[in-house]
Specification:
Layout: E1 2-7, E2 10-15, H1 21-33, H2 38-44, E3 47-53, E4 56-61, E5 66-70
Parallel strand pairs: 2-3
Antiparallel strand pairs: 1-2, 3-4, 4-5
Length: 72
């Protein structure tokens, strides 16, 4: 499944399996916690997509590199 998540007026597609809707909620909560983290906000501008694997969000950058974030 694919949904779109909005953070700081930027929309990014999130890919996850059909049984992981709770992981998407955990991701939203984690992004709310990181709202005032300037380093993460700079990184967010370059993220092309997010893949959820259990309790880990894998942020894919435009250049192909990845950032792993535990959301639990």
């Amino acid at each position: 499944m694919t949904k779109v998540i909005t953070f700081k007026n930027r929309k990014v597609p999130v890919h996850f399996s059909s049984g992981q809707t709770t992981s998407l909620d955990l991701l939203r909560n984690k992004l709310h916690e990181l709202e005032f983290n300037l380093d993460f906000r700079r990184k967010w501008k370059r993220i092309a997509s997010v893949e959820m694997v259990r309790d880990v969000a894998i942020f894919q950058y435009n250049d192909g590199t990845k950032l792993y974030l535990e959301v639990s």
